[in-house]
Amino acid sequence: MTAKTRIAILGASGYTGAELVRLLARHPHVEIVALTADRKAGETMADVFGQFAMLHLPRLCTIKEVDWSKIDAVFCALPHATTQAVVRDLPQHVRVIDISADFRLEDPALYREWYAHEHQALEQQKQAVYGLTEFNRERIAKARIIACPGCYPTAALLPLVPLLERKLIDPDEIIIDAKSGVSGAGRGEKQANLHTEVSEGIHAYGISKHRHMPEIEQELTKAAGTKVAITFTPHLMPMNRGMLDTIYVRGVNGATAEGLHGTLAQRFEGENFVHVMPFGETPQTRHVRGSNHCFIGVVADAKTGRAIIISAIDNLTKGASGQGVQNFNLMYGYPETTGIDMLPLFP
Amino acid sequence: MTAKTRIAILGASGYTGAELVRLLARHPHVEIVALTADRKAGETMADVFGQFAMLHLPRLCTIKEVDWSKIDAVFCALPHATTQAVVRDLPQHVRVIDISADFRLEDPALYREWYAHEHQALEQQKQAVYGLTEFNRERIAKARIIACPGCYPTAALLPLVPLLERKLIDPDEIIIDAKSGVSGAGRGEKQANLHTEVSEGIHAYGISKHRHMPEIEQELTKAAGTKVAITFTPHLMPMNRGMLDTIYVRGVNGATAEGLHGTLAQRFEGENFVHVMPFGETPQTRHVRGSNHCFIGVVADAKTGRAIIISAIDNLTKGASGQGVQNFNLMYGYPETTGIDMLPLFP
Amino acid sequence: MTAKTRIAILGASGYTGAELVRLLARHPHVEIVALTADRKAGETMADVFGQFAMLHLPRLCTIKEVDWSKIDAVFCALPHATTQAVVRDLPQHVRVIDISADFRLEDPALYREWYAHEHQALEQQKQAVYGLTEFNRERIAKARIIACPGCYPTAALLPLVPLLERKLIDPDEIIIDAKSGVSGAGRGEKQANLHTEVSEGIHAYGISKHRHMPEIEQELTKAAGTKVAITFTPHLMPMNRGMLDTIYVRGVNGATAEGLHGTLAQRFEGENFVHVMPFGETPQTRHVRGSNHCFIGVVADAKTGRAIIISAIDNLTKGASGQGVQNFNLMYGYPETTGIDMLPLFP
Amino acid sequence: MTAKTRIAILGASGYTGAELVRLLARHPHVEIVALTADRKAGETMADVFGQFAMLHLPRLCTIKEVDWSKIDAVFCALPHATTQAVVRDLPQHVRVIDISADFRLEDPALYREWYAHEHQALEQQKQAVYGLTEFNRERIAKARIIACPGCYPTAALLPLVPLLERKLIDPDEIIIDAKSGVSGAGRGEKQANLHTEVSEGIHAYGISKHRHMPEIEQELTKAAGTKVAITFTPHLMPMNRGMLDTIYVRGVNGATAEGLHGTLAQRFEGENFVHVMPFGETPQTRHVRGSNHCFIGVVADAKTGRAIIISAIDNLTKGASGQGVQNFNLMYGYPETTGIDMLPLFP
Prior knowledge:
- The structure is a homotetramer.
- By secondary structure, chain A is of the alpha/beta class.
- Chain A has two domains: 5-149 and 318-332, Rossmann fold, CATH 3.40.50; 152-315, 2-Layer Sandwich (Dihydrodipicolinate Reductase, domain 2), CATH 3.30.360.
- The first copy, chain A, has helices at residues 15-24, 45-48, 83-88, 108-115, 122-127, 137-142, 151-165, 195-198, 212-224, 257-267, 317-332, and strands at residues 5-10, 30-36, 60-61, 73-76, 95-98, 129-130, 145-147, 175-180, 203-204, 231-236, 243-250, 274-276, 294-301, 306-313.
- Chain A is globular.
- Chain B binds chain D through residues 15, 182-183, 187, 189-191, 193-200, 238-240, and chain D through 15, 182-183, 187, 189-191, 193-200, 238-240.
């Protein structure tokens, strides 16, 4: 029997941190050695997340207290803009799976524009590999730093990248009407996320201002080989987990909706976590809840000539921590589904 | 003191029927004389809707049992396709406010195509006036039969009709990504509408097949003076009341997003129930819950040149029964807000 | 036509404040002259509560900025412990309807025990009348200061007071298993009230420690003429509005469950807002949502000899602001239902 | 490597059936050979439960079509009263884990009283072992037929049986105020379970009439050695999964609340799935969601001398299918946690 990989989770008191604990505490090749939460240092995980009361986990500590000589890999689930300095100062032997946005934008100027400060770890950013697993396996396996995609980008890129790569859709005609569960907003104490403010109603937010937008455009531009600008409207849904992207596209070079469907079905055949539904069927977020799966459906809009592509993920799993574990498995040579093959929880 | 208008509500055991009772039982100029529900005849309203236990209402009866000589106006909240024969056979003195879809489509061929049977009251359909109140007041006031718009059409037409009438948007580039609460699906016993199947998740349904689509296209075509075909994707939301339409359009003839906003703001100035928010702000469905209000917001999508228009209504009130009462007030010369001026219920 | 009563609402940026605005903005005899929210002073109500965008309301100001010479009555919807100093310093001509807990406990020692500080307006507290409307109309009509009951006390006292007054139940055998919607916790930014923390789950909280407990015991003791100690377990429900009290009692002096039911039915006959259901039927909170109604049901538990009494209210309406307006109507001689006779919103 | 146990699931189109598939499809020692659903025979599991689209499962068939020679064990997730005839006619080599209520009541007269018909498999009922795992391991391991407890009984019996066995609480003073998620009501098309009827509100139902009541009393009577009659009030909660029992008891023979807590903590020490929280703390259903865990808390109610015991389970897992798999593991000598050690899903 081989030794386990010793990991730390930074930011264990947030939802993506808790999701990492849920997945990694049952991962057969992982030993959780350190859990950090600077403001909760000294507390137990059961204090901050009652659902872990039955586990024997290390007590929460500060990042400074971590003994990195005992850590092989670190999962960063810190708030955006706080990860980069931490990663910059890590010992070289520690491999990094970052769930935050800090290493996703490749262009420092673009980062500055959207985050309103200079990036503090430009060297490390150059090393970072974008962790959209299904499109980047070879580089992920060898990388030291993985920038795991955001939830909105994951849901949008999985169906769009293959179509742009093959030049089957018009890069100027992509509209993404995105709907997210509340857990994507984190555990911070914000009035806007109270049950009273979120349940029994819906609304759009951050139109043209959401930080996942340049990330999506960066990856679509790479896929298309030409500058892509999207229309992107995020909406907040009265549910905790789940993300649905309704994507409006126009086929080019003779591509029909059915053709786009065929391309996606072929591209993802054999994938463990990406499932293209029969043509004309569309997914429900509840059918991927708590799982690392992505369901994709394609429908024709006959009269207008558009195709409608709908993708569904769990924003905390495939859209964050689950994809992080998927990348971790690749990095350490474990079967890609290890620890993340649980089936969706419905109802 | 003038006599009250004596009304009947057909289909009082459904949600739009109950919504009519909620509004009309407190309407100062209305006397509810008959409530029908063929399968529940003999029961009290409190039996089928516990929230009315404190009211003194007529017992539920069959449609056949209604004494029409005592009725001035009838609200029809029957399932689609069952209203037309009833309305055909009504005495002439009875004025009709129909909440169902039966008299909305003007073209019998279009009706047949979407409802798969011949319309049974073509004479009456010719008399019917489309009850989108803000656009049709004069004809509504004099009409005998009002075909109240569906919920999706109400939310879409209020912002789109003024823009198409003024030729400010491209009629070939209208995408409506619509989100509805579950109450729109009615009180029928369907597995798909169980709490377990609907809560904590979202999904699209009926893409290109929803019967509100031809209704929207009919009215947009009239407004544009040219054939309009839309892309229309309805989604089911885990909430009871509320509808949000996210509408993607392109300005033409020099119209910017700000210009579209100005046009809408001007068009609805002074309206009691339609409120255009400041440019760049967008509405929440929970802020219109239980009320007859429609909130509209307009946002620019600078890079792509599109404008995003978002409208919010309560599907049971402005999207159904509330607009019915609004039309009724016009027909009988009551102030338009009578009985429907309650403020939204939030939280 | 008589002049309107000029009112101020203190604490208009909280949920009970917003509920007062919802009710009073449509009250035919009220003019809203001032709305305060110290931390939001200068903003409009539409800024803090989007649902009021269509109203013309005074801008939010600080309490200090209120010109009391223009105010006849003030509704206090401030956080607990902040009302008393404000009320102490008000000019004498201003009548006070307090929705907070500050004037509910009559015994200063009990207040100190539960709130951990000395009461700052003992003179005013002596004048305060407990505003459980159905039991105190004469004193309320003449009072200067009304201490409106808490939500849990309202739901518990309405059925229990008549039974204890008539010595029909054992005062040592009262168990109140109470369930509340989240809006009762207010609009404060607390992690515990996030959608993610509250939805799709339930839990008890504050057992034997909830501040509504001494208030209930105070009033039950008065009714019984003997010291009453209750078992009281509040639970937080994944819903915004609504409160259900499941109350376990034992009849004494020959009282059966059916007898208790008969007593309550007789006691509340003719009441506008309290409805005793047929024996054996029990209420749903959704059937009183958004209304000032209380529904009460009584069931026999044959084998054990207990009776189970269930009461349902909307915690923000009959449990707070609605009862406040009901008391206001009494104080000013308006019909008791003025402005609060809207029917429940279901679904 | 040993051969897998070949199983059939009867009633795979219901929620407990789907929960069995979720657990057993990932069970390392199980091969799912047959899935039945008489009315859906011929469809795939993906047709009836979209979340299983990525699995290769046998197509749904009728019970008659099952080839029992290829089945070692059968899980019955059929509606109540339909299981008994099926089990009666099974070949002897097939071991039975029944999730329905059919074999829970030992007294045929009691069964007749509550189910209004004669039991059709009295011979088999005599063989059935009550599957409350933590109290019956030896008999379960050897049994041919397991009657898995209902969800309400599981949540109530786990804390109450040890206390009654030790005569630490008064058997005449047990009040169970129970709250259940909607999934317990199954997937049947009932108006009462529509999202519109269930969300945003709560209510009690079936007081003194719920069929889980005699089951609880049967087991409590066995534990106490004396006839136990309980007060039992089930409530329907606006959530899908989760059950919370708030249990009011009185200590006897000198037992304090703290003493009761100590007894429970000791009794369940070392159990994998039953966790007694520190004295004074109480559980949340969301902290056991999707898992086989039961959390128990005990609080003192000082003034009245009562103790309040609160237990939380997921009604579909520990309250149904999870406990079924736990028993199955015992029957076949697998480690008890196999296939059911997933951590709770929160948020």
